[in-house]
Design a protein that fits this description.
heterodimer, A: alpha/beta, Rossmann fold, two-stranded antiparallel ribbon, 5 helices, 26% strand, globular, B: 85 residues, alpha+beta, Mth169, Chain: A, three-stranded antiparallel beta sheet, 2 helices, elongated
Chain lengths: 224, 85
């Protein structure tokens, strides 16, 4: 049995095929779901792919949040289903209040495009359970608004409950506490700025994204 | 009633404002030496139909909280002016 993954596409999303390719290569079954649909079908997991949903107008994720499909995604997340938001998908999850905090413009106002080294800080999440704490992964980043920001209380809650799942070894964007990825209280919703789907084949320079994508497929199968 | 509305969205105190900082750093090169505390925000303008000013303000507060600003990082200030019918 293979894990089915709904890959959400808004107008302006541009990483849905990369995600679908990586999922297929690892034995999963991706389905691209458009933003105006109201159901995720029989998917066992959801990826909100990167890009510029609705042109990033107003704020990244601000308009995508009100797309019809997001009601289904919220319901799926609240029922414990694995939901991963990558890059713009992370911004959408924060705007949807499925994850706390917000993503601000990068410190220094530079668009960051390159490979970032990440350290796995927690393997208790839908995206990292196949990793070991302390693993270092080289994963591409590609963003202008990836500077994770939250209140002191939220930061304390994230730290105290082991909800910071990935940190940058060298902070590229000013994120508070070097945060690259966080999870929700139930550990089934994870958002991260780096793109693990672009690091699933050695031909692309790194296949360090494989354990992350594999974790997602395993989480999907566990809840199927 | 019809209102002209201006919503000004600005970063909350304590939230880094890289655009403001960049503009501020550029100013001395142009000879503007006395400018400080530069902040960059957005201004959103529209007209609103509502029964009266009170209901307009309630609706706008909700609109700003849920959509026009992200309260985690932004504050908003609403200015509304009745349009003479």
């Amino acid at each position: 049995m293979s894990a089915s993954v709904a890959v959400v596409r808004f107008p302006g999303t541009n990483c849905e095929f990369d995600v679908a390719e990586a999922v297929t290569a690892l034995g999963g079954e991706p389905t691209i779901v458009f933003h105006d649909e109201v159901s995720l079908g029989s998917a066992d997991s959801v990826v909100i792919a990167g890009g510029f949903a609705h042109g990033d107008y107003l704020r990244p994720g601000a308009i995508a949040r009100f797309s019809p499909i997001m009601e289904a995604v919220s319901r799926f997340a609240l029922e414990g289903g694995a939901v991963i938001g990558i890059c713009n998908g992370f911004q959408v999850l924060c705007e949807s209040h499925l994850l706390p905090g917000a993503l601000q413009k990068n410190a220094g106002l530079r668009f960051k495009c390159g490979t970032a080294r990440l350290r796995v800080e927690s393997n208790r999440s839908a995206l990292t359970e196949q990793c070991d704490v302390g693993d270092e992964l080289d994963i591409p980043i590609n963003h202008f608004e990836g500077n994770y920001t939250c209140s002191e209380e939220t930061l304390a809650e994230l730290r105290d409950n082991d909800r910071i799942v990935l940190r940058y070894v060298e902070n590229p964007n000013g994120s508070v506490d070097d945060i690259a990825g966080i999870c929700n209280e139930g550990r089934n919703v994870v958002g991260l700025m780096p793109h693990p789907e672009r690091a699933c084949n050695p031909l692309l320079g790194s296949n360090d994204g494989v354990p992350l994508m594999r974790s997602l497929l395993e989480s999907a199968l566990a809840s199927a | 009633m019809t209102f002209d509305v201006v919503v000004e969205v600005r970063l909350r105190p304590g939230i880094a404002d890289p655009q403001g900082a960049t503009i501020e750093r550029a100013l001395p090169a142009l000879g503007f030496d006395g400018v400080s505390s530069v902040g960059v925000g957005k201004s959103i303008r529209f007209t609103l139909e509502s029964a009266d000013e009170e209901s307009a303000r309630a609706e706008l507060a909700d609109l700003c909280e849920r959509f026009l600003s992200n309260p985690v990082i932004e504050d908003s200030e609403i200015t509304l002016t009745p349009v003479a019918s």
